[in-house]
Amino acid sequence: MSELDQLDGDIRSTGGMHLTATRALARVTFWLGLAGVATLIVAIVLTCADILWRRLVGGAFVDTFDITKLCLVAAASLSIPYGFTQGAHITVDIVADKFPKRLRHVIDIVISVISAALMAFLLWLSWQAAMLYYAYGDTTLNLQLPIIWYWAIFMTGLGLAVLAALARAIDAALCGQPEQSS
């Protein structure tokens, strides 16, 4: 038996490539989730600093709205995929706990697939809207930031959310019940 055949057998027996891809996706979504939290902190600090500056000096920073809005888009878009990889989405425990474990497992797979489909649909709609903004060359009013930046961040998050939801469904189908975040 060649080394390639041995490797292929190892991958099949342990789900190696799938597990490696899932772990890589989990790492990517973790670090992007942290980046999302960091952008939220930037938005909070910037907003507080602008309020303080207005109270103390009487003026405002140059259009903090554009930067804050960009930070909030990044915070949400980059954090949502991490929620999918961790199974931290909202469940109704009062109802779900009444079902047998096997049925809950099937429901988790179905919900993950439906979530992936919804995120893919939103990605498709976002792509269409983003292309309009790109074609017109729209920018923000004061800082002249290209609006496509907002859409690019948003669509990146949606794309990762699709992958994360599908990975969760595949994990559940191949490897049994995925771990829930507590």
Automatic annotation (TrEMBL):
Residues 44-172 form the Tripartite ATP-independent periplasmic transporters DctQ component domain. It comes from Amorphus orientalis. Keywords: Cell inner membrane, Cell membrane, Membrane, Transmembrane, Transmembrane helix, Transport. It comes from the Bacteria. The complex comprises the extracytoplasmic solute receptor protein and the two transmembrane proteins. InterPro entries: DctQ, TRAP_DctQ. GO terms for molecular function: transmembrane transporter activity. It is found in: Cell inner membrane. The chain crosses the membrane at residues 30-53, 106-127, 147-167. GO terms for cellular component: plasma membrane. This is TRAP transporter small permease protein. One of its GO terms (biological process) is C4-dicarboxylate transport. Pfam families: DctQ. PANTHER family: 2,3-DIKETO-L-GULONATE TRAP TRANSPORTER SMALL PERMEASE PROTEIN YIAM (PTHR35011), TRAP TRANSPORTER SMALL PERMEASE PROTEIN (PTHR35011:SF10). Part of the tripartite ATP-independent periplasmic (TRAP) transport system. Belongs to the TRAP transporter small permease family. It is a multi-pass membrane protein.
